[in-house]
C-alpha cells in the first residue's frame, strides 16, 4: 500500500520527491554501501526503532516501474531499513523520487547523504548528554564508550564552530615537510604562555593566503604545503627579532628560551659546555638550580 502525503513538483535543477509508506521488506538495497555499522551499533538502532515504533528519519529511495509496479531502491538509509525489518515494522515512511536518474547520479546521492552529515560540538554535546538522567534514555542516545570517555575531558567553556562564519584551510605535507613544520610551529608556540585559541578575521585569512601566494611565487611553486614551508623557514631565521618585544612584555613571569637565544635549539657542543658549567655551579652550592646558575653566569659576564 503506497500513500503519498507530500508531493514536491519537479523544478529546474532539483529532484522531485514525495513521502510514501512502504513495507520495508519490499525495498531493494544497493549491493555496494560504504557506510557501515558495528554489530553493537546496529543492535542499538534496532532497539531504538522497536521502542519508537517508527523511523525517526526516513530513508531516501529511487523508484522505477517494473512489470507495471513501482520498485524502490534505497540510496540512503540501508541500515535504517534493515533495522525496521529487524524491529518488525510493517510499514515505514520513505522519501522517494520517480525522476530518471543515471547510475552515476544515484551513486553521487548515496555518497553525499553519507558524507555531509555534520559534526557534534563536543562542549554542547556534553551539556546535552548531562541533562539526560534516565539510564535507558542514556543508552538510547547511542553514544559509545569512547565518545563518553572523550566527553569527560571536554571543558564546557568553549565556542561552537556553528556560531562562526569561518573558512577552513587544509594542507597536506610530505613526511619530511611535516617533521620540519612541526619543529618550527612548536618553536612558535613556545612564544606564548598557557593554552590559547587564536581566531583570525577574514581580512587576516585573506592576508595569509596572499603571503602564501607570495612565498610560493618566490620559489616558483603552487603547492600550498611547500609555500608554508618557505614561510616557516623565513620565520625560523628571524626568531631573534622577537627579542625587541621583550621590554614591552615585562609582565610575563617566564619567557621561552627561543626568544632569548633567537633559535629553538643550540649546537650540541654549546649545550654540552653550558650543561657542564651549570652543573658545576649547582654542585658547588653556589646556585640551587640550573636556572639560577645561568643567571649567575650572566651576572658575572656583565660585571
CATH architecture verdict of the largest domain: Alpha-Beta Complex
The CATH topology of the largest domain comes to Conserved hypothetical protein from pyrococcus furiosus pfu- 392566-001, ParB domain
Percent of residues in helices comes to 40-55%
Q: Strand arrangement, largest sheet?
A: 1-2-6-4-5-3
- Mean pLDDT figure: 76
Largest β sheet strand count, sense and barrel closure = 6 strands, mixed
N-to-C CA distance: 98 Å
Question: What is the alpha-carbon Rg in Å?
Answer: 31 Å
What is the CATH superfamily classification of the largest domain? Conserved hypothetical protein from pyrococcus furiosus pfu- 392566-001, ParB domain
Structural class: alpha/beta
Q: What is the tally of beta strands?
A: 6
From the spread of the alpha carbons, the general shape counts as elongated
Spans where pLDDT lies below 50 across 5 or more residues: 1-12
Domains counted in the coordinates: how many?
4
Task: Assess the beta-strand content as a share of residues.
Answer: 5-15%
Amino acid at each position: 500500500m503506497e500513500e503519498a502525503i507530500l508531493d514536491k513538483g519537479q523544478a529546474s535543477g532539483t529532484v522531485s520527491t514525495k513521502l510514501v509508506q512502504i513495507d520495508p521488506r519490499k525495498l531493494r538495497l544497493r549491493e555496494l554501501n560504504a557506510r557501515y555499522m558495528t554489530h553493537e551499533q546496529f543492535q542499538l538502532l534496532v532497539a531504538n526503532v522497536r521502542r519508537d515504533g517508527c523511523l525517526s528519519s526516513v530513508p531516501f529511495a529511487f523508484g522505477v516501474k517494473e512489470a507495471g509496479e513501482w520498485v524502490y531502491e534505497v540510496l540512503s538509509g540501508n541500515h535504517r531499513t534493515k533495522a525496521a525489518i529487524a524491529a518488525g515494522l510493517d510499514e515505514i515512511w520513505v522519501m522517494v523520487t520517480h525522476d530518471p536518474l543515471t547510475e552515476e547520479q544515484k551513486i553521487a546521492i548515496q555518497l553525499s547523504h553519507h558524507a555531509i552529515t555534520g559534526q557534534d560540538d563536543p562542549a554542547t554535546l556534553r551539556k546535552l548528554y548531562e541533562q539526560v538522567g534516565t539510564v535507558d534514555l542514556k543508552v538510547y542516545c547511542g553514544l559509545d564508550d569512547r565518545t563518553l570517555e572523550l566527553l569527560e575531558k571536554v571543558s564546557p567553556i568553549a565556542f561552537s564552530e556553528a556560531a562562526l562564519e569561518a573558512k577552513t584551510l587544509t594542507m597536506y605535507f610530505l613526511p619530511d615537510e611535516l617533521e620540519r613544520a612541526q619543529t618550527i610551529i612548536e618553536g612558535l608556540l613556545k612564544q606564548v604562555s598557557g593554552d590559547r585559541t587564536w581566531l583570525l578575521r577574514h581580512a587576516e585569512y585573506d592576508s595569509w593566503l596572499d603571503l602564501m601566494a607570495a612565498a610560493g611565487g618566490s620559489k616558483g611553486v603552487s603547492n600550498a604545503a611547500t609555500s608554508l614551508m618557505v614561510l616557516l623557514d623565513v620565520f625560523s631565521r628571524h626568531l631573534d627579532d622577537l627579542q625587541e618585544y621583550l621590554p614591552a612584555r615585562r609582565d610575563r613571569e617566564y619567557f621561552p628560551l627561543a626568544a632569548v637565544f633567537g633559535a629553538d635549539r643550540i649546537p650540541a657542543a654549546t649545550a654540552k659546555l653550558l650543561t657542564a658549567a651549570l652543573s658545576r655551579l649547582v654542585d658547588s652550592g653556589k646556585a640551587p638550580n640550573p636556572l639560577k646558575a645561568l643567571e649567575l653566569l650572566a651576572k658575572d659576564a656583565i660585571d
